[in-house]
Specification:
By secondary structure, this protein is mostly beta strands. It has one domain. The chain contains one helix and 16 strands. The radius of gyration is 21 Å and the shape is elongated.
Length: about 190
């Protein structure tokens, strides 16, 4: 085989390999139809900082499904029934996330955690590339969303909530499920 033909075969093999690799990394969220999604916590959601843990037993998720196949999904999560540092009266503002089908979350708004009885609050500003998010296709067309996120940047003010100097060691864990409102399915496909 001439050198020119060998080069042509090599280029064809590399091109096919590149197409295969691109298809292998093209994870998507797939829905049976556009519409609305809703979700709930399957366990306690835990945000950990140097000050201690904030635990929320309720996390209600909502969002719009704008395409039947997408690499990302915007959702808003409202955290309720929260405790922090031994105090029962804790308010956590809603969080808007952009989840990618590849397992990365981006926080799109500022989230505040107000511990009224302790006279303090913690702030988590928008940040990108928070991972690890794992997805599981569940029975009944539901999608499991398991968060195990590290490296969250936050700062506190007042009392137990720490200093105004940003810290980078926040973590977040929680298992949730989402479903398409009105029936149908939502899944994560590799």
């Amino acid at each position: 085989m001439s050198s020119f033909k060998k080069l042509g075969v090599l280029v064809a093999i590399l091109a096919l390999s590149a197409v295969g690799a691109a298809n292998a990394s093209a994870a998507t969220f797939t829905s049976s139809a556009t519409g609305t999604l809703a979700g709930k916590a399957l366990n306690t959601q835990v945000f950990t900082t140097d000050s201690g843990q904030v635990k929320c037993s309720t996390a209600n998720t909502s969002g719009s499904i704008v395409s039947t196949a997408s690499a990302e999904q915007h959702v808003t999560v409202e955290y309720k029934n929260c405790t922090a540092f031994g105090f029962a009266s804790v308010d956590v503002s809603p969080a808007t996330y952009l989840f990618t089908a590849t397992g990365v979350a981006h926080l799109k708004n500022t989230v505040t955690i107000n511990v009224t009885l302790a006279g303090c609050h913690q702030t988590i500003e928008p940040q990108n590339s928070l991972g690890t998010i794992t997805y599981t296709n569940l029975a009944g067309g539901k999608l499991g969303v398991d968060a195990n996120v590290t490296g969250i940047v936050y700062y506190g003010t007042g009392g137990l909530c720490g200093s105004s100097t940003p810290k980078t060691n926040g973590t977040y864990t929680g298992n949730n499920e989402v479903e398409r409102v009105g029936g149908g399915s939502i899944s994560r496909d590799a």
